[in-house]
Design goal:
Blueprint: H1 4-15, H2 22-42, H3 49-82, E1 87-92, E2 95-100, E3 109-112, E4 121-124, E5 129-132, H4 134-137, E6 143-145, E7 150-151, E8 156-157, E9 163-169, H5 175-188, H6 192-222, H7 224-237, H8 241-245, H9 248-260, E10 263-265, H10 270-275, E11 279-282, H11 284-288, E12 294-300, H12 307-320, H13 324-335, E13 350-352, E14 356-360, E15 366-370, H14 372-375, H15 381-384, E16 396-402, E17 405-413, H16 420-429, E18 433-437, H17 442-452, H18 454-457, E19 463-464, H19 469-481, E20 486-490, H20 496-501, E21 504-508, H21 513-518, E22 521-523, H22 529-564, H23 570-588
Helix pairs in contact: 1-2, 2-7, 3-9, 3-23, 6-7, 7-22, 7-23, 9-22, 9-23, 12-13, 16-22, 22-23
């Protein structure tokens, strides 16, 4: 019974005119078993029942290890799905009602009890909320979400009382659902190395069967009594199981480790492309910085306006923009009790990637919110602060103007991620060039470069500010034209084009939906150390694949001639082939040694 699946697979391969690795195994097993049965019936000759049994045991042991590596990845998905509640408390005008999680709609208010898992992506409404996101991001400590920030589905509420949240993405389009779809998509594509190994195995099987017939014919003329035994030994010893397992076992193991750390690949060949990267391009806001700017200073440039009236005028534009600076100002306005008003609201709001937002006012004038260049508030900088010191260059600016006449100017400060410097040092130690392309002012980028010491760390890097999406795209294209392999990490709408253009890309943290769609990998944690782990995992996987293929090839180059010469008995052939597969699978299960990158 144990060998029946192998025989079935072999018959299926032959019926489909496909020479899989099970074909020589099945032929060898059947030949050894039938010959042993005949010799037992006749009462004379060699029997190989013990060899067949040992061969099956070791072969199935190797396949069991490989299957277990695959099941570990599936178990992560199972845990993710199992933690989602089937029913949830929805808050309506007549009180709360219990509804199915799949029936939740955008805009629904829900009440989540302590220790419960979110079924959909939802926004904080009242103060800070702490949630355990370990299943998604791999971070063991609860994460704080401020008012206005979005908690991903799968997060577990870590508060002492129930919290009220507003659904922003239903269960079918939530972070958890996206992860399940992405993993399924990654499984449908295969690395080039895997395809090459499969093709080599197919050609190898065809050549092997011809070679076995030649060996059998040669031994019939030399020593007919040993011809059958040697032919069986060649069949068994040369089974390409190790070659066929060389790549899939590595992918299953590494993808499981990535998923456990909150990193999900969108394509099966992502690790292979990432391992070849020569340059890392980073966005600034939300990537090198935390992505939660706070208002630091306000300058009113038109005495007809106050802070309250300026914020009230800008609020419709702020609410229409997904940019971190706009969301920070919207939270600032909410903190001051400013709510959207239907009176005097601007007309249709238009967004311009990497620049700002604009709308027409009832009197026909144009209201603009964004960078100084976008609102065309020339000469206004002098009215703001003639003596900006070097430290304040790290501030980010948002301008409000009507018909190019500046009304207000906000400066916001966004702290750097605490692991930014060690992570960049680790990535540089891997041999990658570092680049920063940001839509912020060049002075803000220069201050960041000085603060992190990037010029001394990577003098050949490009650290550019005031970059529009098309500018970033053109720079990446120029790098690729020079033969560089670009790995891009970003999080915003204006990063989508360059994420798609890069050889490999990753969307980090609370990335926009468009950035997630175009990225090759999703990093669910807010730590740059996850970028180091992803890079280390890619190189680790490539090294393991090459080791496995080298081992399988070297083993066959040595074992097949020895078996053909009659120096390896059938039981030795079974032992050697099975141990070869066990070596490949065991090697594939090694952990990613990514922490060495920080030493």
């Amino acid at each position: 019974d144990s060998g029946w699946p192998i025989l079935q697979a072999a018959v299926r391969d032959v019926s489909q005119k496909h020479l899989g690795m099970d074909v020589p195994v099945a032929i060898g097993l059947l030949a050894a078993y039938l010959a042993s049965a005949i010799h037992t019936w006749q009462g004379q000759g060699e029997v190989y029942f013990d060899t067949v049994t040992m061969f099956l045991f070791l072969l199935l042991s190797a396949r069991s290890l490989e299957a277990n590596a695959r099941r570990r990845s599936q178990r992560w998905l199972d845990r993710l799905a199992a933690g989602i509640p089937q029913a949830i408390q929805r808050i309506g005008p007549d009180g709360t009602e219990k509804v199915l999680a799949e029936d939740l709609q955008v805009g629904d208010l829900i009440a989540i009890e302590p220790g419960a898992s979110l079924p959909a992506d939802a926004m904080c409404l009242e103060g800070d909320v702490h949630a355990d996101c370990s299943l998604l991001s791999g971070e063991s400590m609860p994460k704080r979400f401020a008012s206005g920030e979005v908690l991903p589905s799968g997060a577990v509420i870590a508060e002492a009382q129930a919290v009220r949240l507003k659904v922003v993405r239903p269960a079918s389009a939530s972070t958890r659902a996206d992860l399940q779809r992405l993993i399924a998509r990654a499984g449908s594509t295969r690395p080039v190395m895997a395809a090459m190994a499969d093709r080599a195995a197919r050609y190898f099987v065809g050549g092997l069967l011809i070679f076995v017939l030649m060996v059998f014919a040669a031994w019939l003329s030399v020593n007919p009594a040993r011809a059958f035994e040697i032919a069986v030994a060649v069949l068994v010893v040369s089974c390409p199981c190790a070659l066929s397992l060389a790549v899939p076992a590595v992918l299953a193991s590494v993808q499981y480790q990535l998923a456990n750390s909150g990193v999900v690949l969108q394509a099966g060949d992502g690790l292979e492309r990432l391992a070849q990267a020569s340059d890392l391009v980073l966005d600034k806001t939300g990537t090198l910085s935390v992505g939660r700017p706070q208002v630091f200073r306000l300058s009113i440039l038109d005495p007809a306006f106050s802070e309250h009236s300026a914020l009230a005028l800008a609020l419709p534009l702020l609410l229409a923009s997904p940019h971190p600076l706009a969301m920070a100002l919207a939270r600032h306005a909410a903190g001051q009790g400013i709510c959207p008003s239907k009176d005097d609201s601007p007309g249709v709001v238009q967004g311009f990637l990497g620049q700002g937002m604009q709308a027409s006012l009832p009197d026909g004038s144009v209201l603009k919110l964004g960078s100084q260049a976008f609102v065309r508030a020339q000469g206004a900088q002098d009215a703001v602060n003639d003596a900006a010191n070097e430290q304040e260059d790290v501030l980010q600016e948002v301008w409000l103007a009507i018909d190019q006449v500046p009304i207000a100017h906000w400066q916001l400060r966004d702290a750097l991620r605490d692991d930014a410097l060690p992570s960049l040092q680790a990535i540089k130690a891997m041999g990658l060039r570092l680049h920063v392309l940001s839509g912020d002012r060049q002075t803000a980028v220069d201050a960041l470069v000085k603060q992190l010491g990037l010029l001394s760390l990577c003098p050949e890097g490009r650290f550019l500010g005031a970059q529009l999406p098309q500018d970033k795209w053109a720079i990446v294209q120029a790098m690729q034209a020079e033969g560089r392999r670009v790995f891009m990490v970003g999080d915003g709408l204006n990063d989508a084009a360059v994420l798609a253009a890069a050889d490999m890309s990753a969307a980090i943290g609370q990335a926009s939906d468009l950035a997630r769609l175009h990225a090759g990998a999703l990093i669910l944690s807010d730590r740059l150390a996850s970028v180091v782990f992803l890079m280390a995992a890619a190189r680790h996987a490539q090294a393991l694949m090459r080791q496995n293929i080298a081992w399988a090839t070297g083993y066959n180059l040595i074992a097949i001639p020895l078996a053909a010469l009659g120096w390896i008995p059938a039981w030795g052939a079974a032992l050697g082939m099975s141990l070869s597969s066990l070596v490949v699978v065991s090697n594939s299960l090694r952990r990613v040694p990514w922490k060495r990158s920080f030493s």
